[in-house]
Write a structure and sequence with these properties.
This protein is an alpha/beta fold. It folds into four domains: 73 residues, Alpha-Beta Plaits (2-Layer Sandwich), CATH 3.30.70; 143 residues, no CATH class; 109 residues, Alpha-Beta Plaits; 36 residues, no CATH class. The chain is built from 14 helices and 16 strands. A four-stranded parallel β-sheet has the order 7-6-8-9, covered by helices on one side. Strands 1-4-3 form a three-stranded mixed β-sheet, with no helix packed on it.
Length: 379
Amino acid sequence: MTGTTDRGIAPLLIDEAACINIRGRVKICAACQDACAGKALSLSLQGVRLDATRCTACGACVPQCPAGALQLRGFSPRNFLQSLDRQPTAQLHCSASCANGSSVAVPCHSVLDARLLAAAYAAGTVSFQLHGLDQCGHCPKGSAAKQVSFIRETLRAWFAQQAPEVISAPGNRDEERRQRWQEDQLIQSRRGFLRGAGLRATAGAAAWLLPAEKARDLESLESDNQPPSRAALEQKHPASYQALLLERVSDLPWRRLPWQQRSITAACNACLVCAQRCPTGALSAWCTPTARGIDVDLGLCTSCRLCERLCPEQAIHEGESASVSALVNGRMALVTRPLATCAVCQRTYVPETETSELCHSCQKESTLKEAWLSLLGQP
């Protein structure tokens, strides 16, 4: 269940069974791979491979995964929010800048996300001062500038003029210290840099570090390079950034919600594969002796669109923005299909019409039999 590594201790915890490519057996997402500045991630339908020698532990891949399949070792989004302590202004330092006792350190600003900052905004933080952005151009972790810009744009789209402030704080290093920092990176090995960056990132960040014993128990499950089992694929967990925002959705001055309605047309044959493979638990399947159906919790949906890709009838569609009430009301029914008992094989099935008496298999056999009899000239 953990991603395999070529060498060394993996900075990432990877829940392979949550990866939408593996769940759907079709490669439709490369968000984590595209976000990785070190080109340390490679994806296939068999697993997620991490080259620990190339990973810089920046965490840029973590918020990009629509399934929430990645965790950065040592970083907890929930504890990060708690460390802000509802302060109106948050001083956020990356590992390349000098944090102090009154600030919060993150491994890299790329680990931040609009959902995470919006959740902090709901708790009272209206300004985020990001320290170290001026050093992104020569940082081995890659540049966080694009991600920060996207966060600003997203927050403005969600809250318009009431959006929280996300700005780059003035540089806090003089030229001598800047040059010394650059020289340190040149002489350290990549593995040495990872250790050093990890120590710098933890300065002043004890409040949000994720204790090892509380991390999802992924690292104890060694990957054997085999695809996850069916039972593993049926396990689901909410994406952490999404879940944190959902908890505070009623406390925000929304202009446009980032969640969309979901609908299922009459073409649905209630195969339930969409709900069985949904990675976050947004869709769930249920079955009784007389009916089966699909429910949805819109707040858990990250619009990964795996359900749309898997639906054999193309019956699932994304609609207009959801309302706050639809999100806070939790799970609701999407589709219900009554079950019938086949007159021939006695198995339960979803009838196509109210007058159907045979399941799909028996109906096909009956149709073939009639075709053969017709060819033989028999009534």
